[in-house]
Amino acid sequence: MRDSKKVKMFLYFLFCLIVALEYVVLGAATNDRQPSCKICKCNGTTVDCEGVKLDNVPKDFPPNITELSLARCGLVELKDNELGMLYKHLRRLDIRHNKIAALKNVTFAGLNELQYIDMGGNKYRADEVDPFVFSLLPNITEIIVRGYGDTRNHDIDRHVPRAWFDTFKGLENSTIERITFDAISESPVILKKEDFVYLNKSPVKYLSLYNIRLVDIDFEFLGNLIHLEEVDLSMNNLQMNIKYLNAITQLFKLKKLRNISLNDNSQNWNEKNERELLPKFIAEFPLPVPQSMEEINFARSILVRGPKRYLSYGFKIQRENAIRKVDVSGFKLMQRLGPVHGAVHVKELYAEDIGCEMYPSTFSCEYGALESIEIMNIAHNFINMTQNNVKQLGCSPTVADSNT
């Protein structure tokens, strides 16, 4: 009986010893396999190597990681399939500010779960960015590219921004929702309708082409982005004869559009003749603003040079809209503005210093005009006080005074 107990105790002790040894051995092996976690920050399924000098992508992180930052690591290349073979469960990838020049169609192969990639600030060469670099990312929802790429590309016909637009070929019928191409060009860029034809069946909700030196825009490109909710075309340098009615028509076809930013643009196009931007017969009919529209920002954009342009008859928009904020401060477009009607939900209006002749009825708070206004700044403009309805200016205690 005693011998039986001794045997059981011995077996139990042996089992515990084996478990302990296995824990020590496997633990040591695990640490040996992950020395990179000593120089990078490993926290669960997240690895942050930002600012760590690396010659190659480390191969010894846990294979189940879902977030990886390799920003500012001095990497000069991404080998074919490497990320997908090592870390196939990645959902977020940051490779900003390295020295990567080439992106092939298999660079991101195997990253079937990747949803987000931030890849700006590298030395991409226009002739080495494959049009189908994103084609093997079946779950990608957001792509961010910021930076000019290799500035030595100026002698290459297909400049870096054109190469990025070509990558839309690999996003046909994709899951992409957000595209940010900011400051990707030092050379003039012409935006064409056909640039976005490959996205017409993708659910793109957000598009930023901020500061990419846009000089010409075919606004019909918006027809390929019917799911668009936000568009940012700020900080560009338009040199085109803008067909305003066509531009408005294309914008207002976007039934889900919430925010539009066209601020800080400078136009160098000079027209020869004075003209009305909206003829009277058009100004009398409400413009079909998307019912989802919430905010409009055209601040500090200069879209008029040379002869004067007018909106003498004002304009109307459909009452069924959600516009809450309009910022056109410093916006140079017209020298005369008539009554504005239909912006019945606008609470904030900034229209100071637009260099425009206005009337007491221009920004009236009467029913059907700006009846919900809380903040209105129309300072530093020219108010024509010949009309009798002067009291319409005093529609809110928060309205800023204007120069007369």
TrEMBL record:
Record-linked PANTHER family: ANTIGEN BSP, PUTATIVE-RELATED, CHAOPTIN-RELATED
Signal sequence annotation: 1-29
Protein name, UniProt field: LRRNT domain-containing protein
Keywords: Leucine-rich repeat, Repeat, Signal
Organism this protein belongs to: Owenia fusiformis (Polychaete worm)
Domain LRRNT per the UniProt entry, residue ranges: 36-67
GO cellular component, one term: plasma membrane
InterPro entries, per the entry: Leu-rich_rpt, LRR_dom_sf, LRR_TM_domain-containing, LRRNT
Domain of life: Eukaryota
SMART domains given in the database record: LRRNT
Regions crossing the membrane: none
